[in-house]
């Protein structure tokens, strides 16, 4: 009985987040909601080689190549079940992916894409919060839905794409 009583008296108390009322009060209610991770985009210098890696070596379902001239990219989607990878390759010399690959010769993570339920409300609120948006209006993205990009310097070094769910 001596060991048990010592353990009971010396056990540290653990504070739980049952006081989450004060925590949630610090979070302002938004007119829009952040949804699921839609995809992680990877810039690749050789699109066919990258497609082959995911399809033939890793056994993933890989889409056909689609050109998106408005964004200056070729895209390929790799299905992962709970999300996707988007392989990006430059389309034209003014492609943002071409400049990315000049700095990152072997490619690498380019951006993440998160769904939102109201992209216009998100834009309005983010502008009020001094988050820079890289276009005045949403553009149609690879999934045929409106998208915007948030400045990486305002998002801890990550280029964030928001897509209308």
From TrEMBL:
GO terms for biological process: L-methylmalonyl-CoA metabolic process. Its EC number is 5.1.99.1. The keyword Transcription regulation does not apply. Pfam families: Glyoxalase_4. CDD domains: MMCE. Residues 36-165 form the VOC domain. It comes from the Eukaryota. Keywords: Cobalt, Isomerase, Metal-binding. InterPro entries: Glyas_Bleomycin-R_OHBP_Dase (IPR029068), MeMalonyl-CoA_epimerase (IPR017515), MMCE/EMCE_epimerase (IPR051785), VOC_core (IPR037523). The keyword Isomerase applies. It catalyses: (R)-methylmalonyl-CoA = (S)-methylmalonyl-CoA. Belongs to the methylmalonyl-CoA epimerase family. This is Methylmalonyl-CoA epimerase, mitochondrial. It comes from Motacilla alba (White wagtail).
């Amino acid at each position: 009985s001596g060991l048990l009583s010592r353990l009971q008296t010396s056990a540290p108390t653990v504070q739980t987040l049952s006081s989450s009322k004060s925590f949630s009060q610090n979070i302002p209610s938004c007119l829009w909601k952040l949804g699921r991770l839609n995809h992680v985009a990877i810039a690749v210098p050789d699109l066919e080689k990258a497609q082959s890696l995911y399809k033939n070596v890793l056994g993933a379902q890989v889409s056909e190549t689609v050109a998106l001239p408005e964004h200056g990219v070729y895209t390929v989607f790799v299905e992962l079940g709970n999300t996707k990878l988007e392989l990006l390759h430059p389309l034209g010399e003014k492609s943002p992916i071409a400049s990315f690959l000049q700095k990152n010769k072997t490619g690498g993570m380019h951006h993440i894409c998160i769904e939102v339920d109201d992209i216009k409300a998100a834009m309005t609120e983010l502008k009020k919060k001094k988050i820079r948006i890289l276009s005045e209006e949403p553009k149609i993205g690879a999934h045929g839905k409106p998208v915007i990009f948030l400045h990486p310097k305002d998002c801890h070094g990550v280029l964030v794409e928001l897509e209308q769910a």
